[in-house]
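Appendix C: a fully annotated inverse folding record. The material below is reproduced so that readers can follow the format used throughout the book. The structure is listed first as tokens, followed by the designed sequence.
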């Protein structure tokens, strides 16, 4: 589902599992208010996903548009976690951890 949604939205599929791992240990500790939200989407508030597939589709669509449009893949991680393009230590550390995860995922 992650690959299909990423392909539909034109993003690198590795963004979706990377964010899930960084935000919730791959779904082990999702948002309290919404157990389908393994991505920290909307800072864990105001969203009620109906299924994991719904969450995946929403995350993929979000990463494809708005402030993410036209950015390189790893910069999208910075925007996801902090809202800017890798200007804070927190964003840079998140991107670095994400880059390490990208290296473990195959890009075919």
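Designed amino acids, in order:
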């Amino acid at each position: 589902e992650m690959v299909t949604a990423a392909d539909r939205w034109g993003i690198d599929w590795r963004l979706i599992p990377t964010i899930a791992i960084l935000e919730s240990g791959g779904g082990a500790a999702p948002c309290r208010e919404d157990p389908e939200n393994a991505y920290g989407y909307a800072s864990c508030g105001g969203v009620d996903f109906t299924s994991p597939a719904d969450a995946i589709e929403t995350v993929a669509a979000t990463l494809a548009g708005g402030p993410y449009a036209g950015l390189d893949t790893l910069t999208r991680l910075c925007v996801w976690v902090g809202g800017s393009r890798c200007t804070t230590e927190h964003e840079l550390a998140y991107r670095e951890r994400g880059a390490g995860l990208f290296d473990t995922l195959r890009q075919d």
